[in-house]
Amino acid sequence: MKHSLINSVNKAWPPIVAVILILASWEFLVTWLNIEKWFLPSPSDIIREGFSSWPRLWLHTTSTLTKMLIGFPIGVLAGILIAVVMHLSKPIKSAFSPLLIISQNIPIIVLAPLFLVWFGYGVFPKIIVVILVCFFPIVVSMTTGLVETDRGLYNYMRMIGASRRQIFTKLELPFSLPYLFSGMKISATYSVMGAVIAEWLGASSGLGHYMVISSKSFRNDRVFTVVFVIVILSLIMYALIIVLQKLVIRWNSRSAKEGS
């Protein structure tokens, strides 16, 4: 336990020191060069603005969180379902794999305005955007995990007469979990980005909406405050997936590390 704690501290302090140095240099240069606040606020200006506008900022944050927490699990479940169906049916995989790849070459910022036209300016089109940005990493990682099952164990289970269902539930699915969590880490951070992009293009609340109106008012201190909140939300989502991975994958620590 003590050794693990020391290792965690040794891994954590270099990036923490780097962030502190960057913020200190930023503060010094803005003050020394006398840069206008509307052009480039200092970290201290951003922190002050964050505290002073916290009630308003929190309302926009909860709006974005709602879209994320609805869209992310739906995107994950949809990705798992599609990956499993494609793995169990080779014809479906051959038919839909190219379509999935082609769909990811269409920028989401192009589709989002269409969703607003089709579904209005409510929450629903924003949730669709979050689902779309989340499900593809899940499909790719889950499909890879199902294919990368230990072939020796696979051949052994077939030799002893295991059914296709038994092979899937007892072997392929457990071995795919590290890959699934790897994809979930990517999707978790994408969910924040997807919600904010959707709010950029048309919303009455949310961090993306708040960022747009702040930028139009030349309140870059508020824009940077939103950026910091987005980064914090992404890190929290990433950390929650790591915790969930450690709780679920206890049977194979080596595979869990590879999935990280």
Explain how this protein is built.
This protein is mostly helical. It folds into two domains: 1-34; 40-259, Orthogonal Bundle (MetI-like fold), CATH 1.10.3720. The chain is built from eleven helices and no strands. It starts with a helix and ends with a helix. Residues 253-260 have low confidence and may be disordered.
CATH hierarchy, class of the largest domain? Mainly Alpha
**What is the CATH architecture assignment of the largest domain?**
Orthogonal Bundle
Largest sheet: none
Overall number of strands: 0
Question: So how many helices?
Answer: 11
Fraction in helix = over 70%
Topology:
Blueprint: H1 2-32, H2 43-52, H3 54-88, H4 90-103, H5 108-119, H6 123-147, H7 151-159, H8 164-201, H9 207-216, H10 220-248, H11 253-259
Helix pairs in contact: 2-10, 3-4, 3-6, 3-8, 3-9, 5-6, 5-8, 6-8, 7-8, 8-9, 8-10, 8-11, 9-10
List keywords for this structure.
11 helices; 85% helix; 2 domains; 0% strand; MetI-like fold; globular; mainly alpha; 260 residues
Quick take:
By secondary structure, this protein is mainly α.
